[in-house]
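Researcher: Go.
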Amino acid sequence: MRPTLDSPWRWAGAVLLLVTAGTHVPLVPEHLEEAPYVGVLFIALAVVSVALAALLVLHDTPLVWAVSGAVTALAALAFLLSRTVGLPQIGDDIGNWTEPLGFPALTAEVLTTVTGLLVLSRRSARTPLRPAVTR
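Model: Structure:
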């Protein structure tokens, strides 16, 4: 049995991960054409975000929260790098802070990361882990 957190934030985390996925899917076709590696990374981010959302709802473990926070932190970092120093093949994104899906994506990513950090930091002796119920 894996320990679960029974976090009241797991549904919010799942929704934020779905927003992260949903904001990247529409951008896949243009990025596969312009910078294929970015398109592939967007596909991977969307798939992983949906999987993590499901895992948060079903298993809510410290590992799932940690991976969710790490994935979204890396996605936010990639966005910031693409807008500041640029990334190969998409240098035209430098300074493009007004991309319509950029704000909701970055917001969801940062909120997921922060929520994950808060959930993990609040895990203490007075809130013991509960064994997962097998179904």
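Model: The chain has a mean pLDDT of 90.
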